[in-house]
Write a structure and sequence with these properties.
Pfam families: Thiolase_C, Thiolase_N. It comes from Sulfitobacter sabulilitoris. The protein is α/β, with parallel strands linked by helices. The protein is built from 13 helices and 13 strands. It has a domain of 117 residues: Peroxisomal Thiolase, Chain A, domain 1. Strands 1, 2, 3, 4, 5, 6, 9, 10, 11, 12 and 13 form an 11-stranded mixed β-sheet that branches. A two-stranded antiparallel sheet has the order 7-8. The two termini are 19 Å apart.
């Protein structure tokens, strides 16, 4: 079977809710990433066969064929098609997997896989809220779903609490993980580890080049002082991912395109896995998904040099570490969504961008990325740095 290669990656620096990216239309954020990928690769924009855009809250400025709008706002010719997909938090990781499948099938040679989410301008759940306000139907969960699972309240926050209790974690452990995320992200920023990843954006008369959510001065006391989301729970805003605006993307190409266009491969995609499980606990699926991906690739956890496990809530990567017995020093080495932010549909491509750069910076070979996703789904992608 033909291989799929990642040749370029790019991301915006994360913006806090109401922060540096508040005045950026999300289609323009996507366009900036597209243009950066084209510029970095040096290819003719007309060589792009397709653009696959992950976005979770598809409403308002992120509605009406949003992926196509990102293309129309970019320097790509209007002849380049696009599609918008929603696999919840894994949307742009799935975009990468769809792009790889297109290349590996031989149907396309150059595909941009990316994600965009402006959580300031299109708030989380706002598309559901508009539906409810209009008094149309029962919302996304039908009577059949409610009867099957005994609820219509499929809550990621509750799922995170359930995971913490199931795997025996307490708040102090969750907070300690959150503090380490900020420490690693601050160190990575100070060392320039993110410099080659980030697309500089014009904001307020200056340039936005640093992730706004990182708190270099965070302490165990300051994180521990944040109010819990539930009175008897363990999850707080400090040990959960931050609301964030941002965009990220990768260019995926075939071996034929490498030769024809004179491109340099940065990584080869080794394995593509997606699984689904319990939609109530919801966020635990990366555990069995990782097992399946490693088995399909004929690898063990010790074969993987670096891991990117999305920090939707601290309980998720902690449970993943406990289950896989992976080396914590190899996990989210430059911090994660607790510090860097979680721009929903853009996070999968952001993690992949960071993973590719981190492997090269450390001279390592294999990387594994996984995301917990609404509805109890998880994607796993294994890559080999080249």
């Amino acid at each position: 079977m033909p291989h799929a290669y990642i040749v370029e990656t790019a991301r915006t620096a994360g913006g806090r809710r109401g922060g540096a990216l508040r005045d950026w239309h999300p289609a323009d954020l996507g366009a900036e990433v597209i243009d950066a990928l084209i510029a970095r690769s040096g290819i003719d924009p007309a060589a792009v066969d397709d653009v696959i855009v992950g976005c979770v809250t598809q409403g308002g400025e992120q509605a009406f064929a949003f992926g196509r709008n990102c293309v129309l706002a970019s320097t790509l010719p209007q002849s380049v098609p696009a599609v918008t997909i929603d696999r919840q938090c894994g949307s742009s990781q799935q975009a990468v997997q769809f792009a790889a499948q297109a290349v590996m099938s031989g149907t396309q040679d150059v595909v941009i896989a990316m994600g965009v989410e402006s959580m300031t301008r299109v708030p989380m759940f706002s598309n559901v809220a508009l539906h409810a306000k209009a008094g149309l139907g029962e919302g996304p969960f039908s009577d059949r779903i409610a009867a099957r699972y005994g609820t219509r309240d499929f809550s990621q926050f509750r799922g995170a609490e359930m995971i913490a209790r199931k795997h025996g974690f307490d708040r102090a452990q969750l907070d300690a993980f959150a503090l380490e995320s900020h420490r690693r992200a601050a160190a990575a920023t100070a060392s320039g580890a993110f410099d080659d990843e980030i697309v500089s954006l014009a904001v307020d008369g200056g340039r936005h080049t640093r992730d706004e959510g990182i708190r270099p001065d965070a302490t165990a006391d300051s994180i521990g002082a944040v109010r819990l989301l539930e009175e008897d729970g363990m999850i707080s805003a400090a040990n959960a991912s931050q609301i964030c605006d941002g965009a990220a993307g990768v260019m995926v190409v075939s071996g034929a395109a490498l030769k024809r266009l004179g491109l340099r491969p940065r990584a080869r995609i080794v394995n593509l896995t997606v699984t689904a499980g319990d939609p109530v606990i919801m966020l635990e699926e990366p555990l069995p998904a990782t097992d399946r991906a490693l088995a399909r690739a004929g690898m063990s956890i010790d074969d993987i040099d670096l891991f990117e496990v999305n920090e939707a809530f601290a309980s998720v990567p902690l449970a993943w570490l406990k289950h896989t017995r992976a080396d914590p020093a190899r996990l989210n080495v430059n911090g994660g969504a607790i510090a860097l932010g979680h721009p929903l549909g853009a996070s999968g491509a952001r993690l992949m961008t960071t993973l590719v750069h981190a492997l090269h910076a450390r001279g390592k070979r294999y990387g594994l990325q996984t995301m917990c996703e609404g509805g109890g789904i998880a994607n796993v992608t294994i890559i080999e740095a080249l």
